[in-house]
Design brief:
- There is one protein chain.
- The chain has 14 helices and two strands, in the order ααααααβαααβααααα.
- The chain is mainly alpha-helical.
- The chain has a single domain, classed as Orthogonal Bundle (Farnesyl Diphosphate Synthase), CATH 1.10.600.10.
- It has a two-stranded parallel ribbon.
- Helix 2 runs antiparallel to helix 13.
């Protein structure tokens, strides 16, 4: 049985989004009421899974909670209001169960020691915790085109790579190293968080490399925005542009992980939002999805398999 949220009042989905996902809530102003509500319901469920892991008293309790969650999803019924609401959303939007299970698998993987070895592991992790969300957002917006879904995966991956680049130090204090050892060596997470560690240049270069890799996936993700309904296109364009701007902030500080958490202030968000909407991706020639971006995603749901 799911127990973590028993006795807690269920916050409205939009309130959860406003509190925890400020960039998304800012962009949500451009969605219609129903679109915003459904996106927020999806976000609240994703946040719920994160909290099952983060708020558990120990690793085994977290695993038990995730097993109970998967059981509820399988049965299509839950006594936990947030999960029941998501089950109803998933039915309404015809979400694929296998995509939701990959999302849970990705979050559950953070319960194990996180020492990413290579780009293969990095990109599969990003697919699971964020590419899947891109696919589920397609379902919310009733977008079923295969190319669109490939691009949605890439947008999610780009955003997660940005997350990882921004949070290198924070994750290191939790014993997690998402930077591949092939880039930075077999450095222990706790050493990444140490300002006096011996390899600051290689760490900064690795953060720079994360942002460059993210940009490749953002470029592909932006090609998929044209498949969205008009208002949804504006909202997601702005959310992606604001998130991508975090990489610019990191670049301005030399990719130094000890300069404080990178964020985009309100005035800068407004400038980025205006610039992104005025650029209008629909006016640009469409480029088909590049299957090489999914080379490391072979076998995962909806990934682009080479012909």
């Amino acid at each position: 049985m799911l127990t973590s949220y028993k006795g807690k009042p269920m916050q409205s989905a939009v309130n959860v989004l406003a509190h925890h996902g400020k960039s998304f809530r800012f962009a949500g102003r451009f969605l219609d009421k129903n679109q915003l509500e459904d996106c927020a319901r999806l976000y609240r469920f994703c946040r719920f899974i994160d909290d099952l892991v983060d708020e558990a008293s120990d690793t085994q309790t977290a695993r038990n909670q995730l097993a109970a969650l998967k059981n509820d999803l399988s049965y299509g019924c839950s006594s936990e209001p947030i999960v029941q609401d998501f089950i109803e959303l998933a039915r309404q939007c015809q979400m694929q169960a296998k995509v939701v299970l990959e999302l849970i698998k990705g979050i559950e993987s953070d319960l194990d020691p996180v020492l990413i070895q290579n780009e293969f592991q990095l990109l599969r992790y990003c697919y699971r915790v964020a590419g899947t969300v891109g696919l589920l957002m397609c379902d919310v917006f009733e977008v079923h085109d295969k190319n669109a879904r490939n691009h949605a995966i890439d947008l999610g991956i780009g955003m997660q790579l940005t997350n990882i680049a921004r949070d290198v130090k924070e994750d290191a204090t939790l014993g997690r190293r998402y930077i591949p050892s092939g880039w930075v060596g077999e450095v222990a997470p706790e050493l990444l968080a140490e300002p006096r560690q011996k390899t600051p240049n290689s760490i900064n270069e690795s953060v720079k490399r994360l942002i460059a890799l993210a940009d490749n996936y953002y470029a592909s993700g932006s090609q998929g925005l044209r498949f969205l309904p008009t208002r949804a296109q504006a909202g997601i364009t702005i959310a992606a542009a604001i998130y991508r701007e975090i990489g610019t902030v990191l670049s301005e500080r030399g990719f130094d992980i000890h300069s404080g958490r990178a964020h985009v202030g309100l005035l800068r968000k407004i400038r980025v939002a205006l610039r992104s909407v005025l650029s209008n991706s629909r006016s640009q020639p469409y480029e088909s999805h590049d299957p090489t971006l999914h080379t490391h995603l072979a076998g995962l749901p909806n990934a682009h398999e080479p012909a």
